[in-house]
């Protein structure tokens, strides 16, 4: 099982790397891209939580959010739970970027999967649902 797990890990890494290289809808640094996707899923979200979940240091998360803010993709607003703190949310431009990036990545992955026969493609897509359950709490 360890050998198969390693093969899966290497293959997933290659696929993600390929998708990152083929992404033309955004000129974001990979950390910015990951943070933007996290913000989209979890907003409103504090910078400390972004740092923990990307993962990166708190200063890197602060710099990353500042870059996204400067690009007009996110904004800071009072945290709804603790008004003394700030939370990060997407702007309309950020939501459009997330949607376009997701669409492009899905299209590129579909192109990769088109290399497989129908049975293997179905198996990989079913595995995606299982992997989603594994990663739900990460």
UniProtKB/TrEMBL annotation:
Task: State one Pfam family annotation.
Answer: MarR
| Any one Gene Ontology molecular-function term assigned to this protein's record | DNA-binding transcription factor activity
| InterPro entries cross-referenced by the UniProt entry | HTH-type_Bedaq_tolerance (IPR052526), HTH_MarR-typ (IPR000835), WH-like_DNA-bd_sf (IPR036388), WH_DNA-bd_sf (IPR036390)
Boundaries of each HTH marR-type domain copy? Answer: 1-136
Question: Signal sequence: where?
Answer: none
What protein name applies here? MarR family transcriptional regulator
């Amino acid at each position: 099982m360890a050998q198969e797990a390693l093969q899966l890990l290497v293959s997933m890494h290659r696929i993600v790397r390929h998708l990152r290289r083929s992404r033309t809808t955004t000129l974001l640094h990979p950390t910015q891209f990951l943070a933007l996707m996290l913000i989209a899923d979890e907003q409103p979200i504090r910078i400390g939580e972004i740092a923990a979940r990307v993962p990166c240091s708190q200063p890197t998360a602060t710099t990353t959010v500042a870059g996204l803010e400067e690009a007009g993709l996110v904004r800071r607003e009072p945290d709804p739970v603790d008004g003394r703190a700030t939370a990060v949310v997407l702007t309309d431009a950020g939501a459009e970027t997330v949607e376009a990036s997701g669409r492009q990545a899905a299209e590129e992955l579909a192109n990769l999967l088109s290399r497989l026969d129908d049975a293997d493609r179905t198996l990989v897509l079913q595995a995606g649902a299982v992997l989603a359950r594994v990663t739900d709490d990460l």
